[in-house]
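Record 1 of the preview.
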Amino acid sequence: MFSDIFKQLLQNSNVTAYQMSKDTGISESLISNWKSGRQLPKYDSLNTLADYFNVSGDFLLGRTGNKNTNLKDDKHHDSNSQSHKTIILPFYRTPASAGSGSWLSDDMPIEYTNVPKTEETLSADFLLEVRGDSMQPKFLDGDRVLVQNSESIYEEEIGVFVLNGESYIKKMGRNELISLNSAYKPIQLHEFDEIRCVGKVLGKVDL
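->
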């Protein structure tokens, strides 16, 4: 479990909770909670820990015994290759619709996953799965998209929206949500609609 891995890393690195707190800005009380297993780190803290101890996110999460590679790398191991730098992002399995709409709420099940460390992934706050074909050819059914939290986006940008209780990945238009697939008509927005923007879609990533 995480607490055992964390304590072992501290011991092997000969680092005290005080020193780690000083180096990273993470409070000693939070470090104590991690050591005792009373609390698990959030994804941004997991990334900080991975960088601090120079290990992979999957190693911290107990998914692999190899400190320097992620689970995906272990499955395709090449003794002459070097592991790629990754970060950890929340991944919502319940999809947002690129079609007729699906539910997206704060109670959605969440897991953490490793993604390549790029300028785009560093700007993202979470991953979301696409459902449907209305955003083809840019996004296909089952694609994982990178989303940056935002309460609003500009026209012509692609975002995640919750409209009258249903979630969509669409391009923002003038009083409408637009599909990239011409087979789907724009969704007209009205004064009585309940709509909120969840975030801006930055791109997609292969897992």
